Amino acid sequence: MVQVKMTVNGKAASGDVEGRTLLVQFLRENLHLTGTHVGCDTSQCGACVVHVNGTAVKACTMLAAEAEGAEVVTIEGVANADGSLNTVQQAFQDHHGLQCGFCTPGMVMTATALLKENPNPTEAEIRDYLEGNICRCTGYHNIVKAIMAAAGQDVSRIAAE
Amino acid sequence: MYNFEFVRPTTIADAVAALGHEGAQALGGGQTLLPTMKQRLASPEKLVSLTGIAEMQGVCISDDGHLCIGGATPHAVVAREAAKHYPALAGLASHIGDPAVRNRGTIGGSLANNDPSACYPSAALGSGAVIVTNTRRIAADDYFQGMFTTALQDGEIITEVRFPVPEKASYQKFEQPASRFALVGVFVAKYADGVRVAVTGASEEGVFRWSEAEAALSKSFTADALNGLTVPADGMIGDLHGSKEYRAHLVGVMTKRAVAAAA
Fold it and tell me: Chain A: nearest CA to B8, how far in angstroms?
């Protein structure tokens, strides 16, 4: 066992982990931050996306020990200070960007990373950036629409499907 | 995955020392190795992470005009920082896997693994890059030695990759849509002394140079110069995603596209 220390959602976090402990296991099992989901465990689906030092990574394909000293942000850390949904989260709710919700934490974290890099993405750029996030419910239409809305684009003429 | 000891040295010397232990394995961004270990297809006793070594990070231009990329530099950083120096290489890096994979996966990890369908080997071979390790410099022509096989010795680390910057280049990838690996990918680079064409994804021997196309393109750098040239289907990869013949055909198509798109 080795001790790891990192900052998670602005707070110091530490714990004893095995070498093989994945970051997502550390977040869910040690810190009980179960908003980060494990969909496939093979780095295909993106349900486990979190931000490490400001960039989106798949927490199922990174060791907890590799995050030593890092700044980690999970879905639990993105809401506004008063607990209300942030712009991206609210857009997902407003535009029905989820059905079962399992992929949603990863979608929101990936969308947030996209908007940081590219504040006004086109529909094609959004679809391209979501390549590593799989949703089996929505057909992506409303997820893409929600992200366009979160970027401040007028989506009123895009059909609700 | 089986358990292992994890170390994250901060110098190349410490990493080399740690890799001297039996059962030790270098870890780049882990985007291939960790899934492989989860499937228990690899079970190192010790993982030596190379991502904590500052001198193996980043992109720069050397005094002799080469683009130098630290071995532990993630694809996303190459995509961003190499864009104005070598756009074709940056474009290749920006289409590996997906955004989250590109934030972790490294150029050194990709070249050390030498997956027959990976993108970076075609850029290194197509550019005549030099693979710099902790002990020596290896020309790309000597480095790739077949599927998942390279000139690297046990415990040898890719510290840097040096790319001569071409006049024009392009990488064209026909993606296998599920994995996003190259079903066939072709890297074409035009230098003052000739054209290089490297093909990934197609051959059972891994990345290779298409010398007939190089000769034709060195005379005339146009897609039409490739008319009538084909690679034999024999020796191509055939699987459920595409037959040998299909891949051989795609080599010609993607090479033409790369020449047409070269900038």
Answer: 8
- Name residue A22's beta-bridge partners: A63
Chain A residues whose CB is inside 8 A of the B175 CB are none
| pLDDT, tens digit, 9 for 90 and up, residues B114-166 | 999 999 999 999 999 999 999 999 999 999 999 999 999 999 999 999 999 99
Domain range for A51 is: 2-77
Contact at CB, B99 and A129, closer than 8 angstroms: yes
Q: How many domains does chain A have?
A: 2
CATH 3.30.465.10 corresponds to the domain B5-163: yes
Torsion-angle region of A96 (φ positive above 0: left; ψ -120 to 50: alpha; else: beta): left
| Tokens encoding A25 | 């296991």
The CATH number of domain B168-261, selected from 3.40.50.720, 3.30.390.50, 3.40.50.1000, 3.90.1010.10: 3.30.390.50
Would you call B100 and A132 a contact, using CB atoms and an 8 Å cutoff? yes
Interface predicted TM-score of the whole assembly (ipTM), two decimals:
0.95
The beta-carbon neighbor of A18 closest among B3, B76, B100 is B3
Q: What share of chain B is helix, strand, coil (3-state, %, to 5)?
A: 30, 25, 45
